[in-house]
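Chapter review: from sequence to fold.
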Amino acid sequence: MSYVAVRGKGDPNAKGGEYQNVLLLLYGVAYAIKMSKRGMRRSGKSELMKAFSVSVARKDPSSNNVYIDLLGLDNEPLLEYHALHREIIGRYKEGARNRLFIDEVQQCKGFEKTINSIHARGGWDIYLTGSNAFLLSSDLATLFTGRHREVHILPFSFGEYRSYFGERGTVDDDFDGFIRRGGLAGSYDYDNISESYGYVRDVYKTILTRDLVQKFSLPDSTVLKKLAEHMMDNSGNLNSPNNIANVLDANRVPTNHVTVGRYISLLRDAFVFYEAKRYDIKGKKYLSTQQSITLRLGNALCGPGDAQHGLGSHVRECSLP
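The token string follows.
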């Protein structure tokens, strides 16, 4: 199975912005299934695809762009995969470059049958977004068996944060604000920092409950919660499942390294944390025994008194490739 990851900077909605430009690279991978879903919940996947579809229509007026938002009530009849298949086939135009955009594709139960069938027929360039609660990386490998490419979408970087707000003050002042708020653009809609923190906490709770506990029927949500809190407090530090399991046991949260290792993988797949592998400069190889973890949610979950933790995490993120 092969993957293509493209990274963009700046405002995803900006005309001619880097996010839209990097998506144009996927034109070279014609008639594959593109999943614009790899990214933390509320990181702007749907808005990016909308902006991209508008950009495509502007640059290629002859293109037949079919955009379907499965959250819209008007499209409720398409939530059955046979009906969705008929709708797509009916909107195909012979001789045109046919592009299919489906937002929140997981709303249609059995959607993978429709998408695989459309892909097998040929003649369509397919773009999809979906919720992390239903479509983690492991799911894509099973559903599309190597016939897809993924677009990685990250929360805002410091440069994007300054682009969004404008350069309000010195770099140091703006960086302090970025550390407090984090990179989730949705939190920027709130002028009050407490409301902004509330937004981030709600996103975090949704990830833990819907994307992980409910999806995977995790037997002990307490272990997951305490594990995530420990990882936040140690963002940027070296960690291993064994060490973390010992710490949790010592704090009366009984678990084992197998459970901790699995839960860390789930948190990483849900993009709550990012992994930075250790590198042995002398041996010129990656070491798999311990990894550094980074968090990109600002101080909303750690508390405003933990600015030093936030600073350390962001500084370490700057060193990641």
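Two observations follow directly from the output. Strands lie at 33-38, 64-69, 98-103, 124-128, 148-152, 238-239, 273-280, 285-295. The first helix runs from residue 18 to 24.
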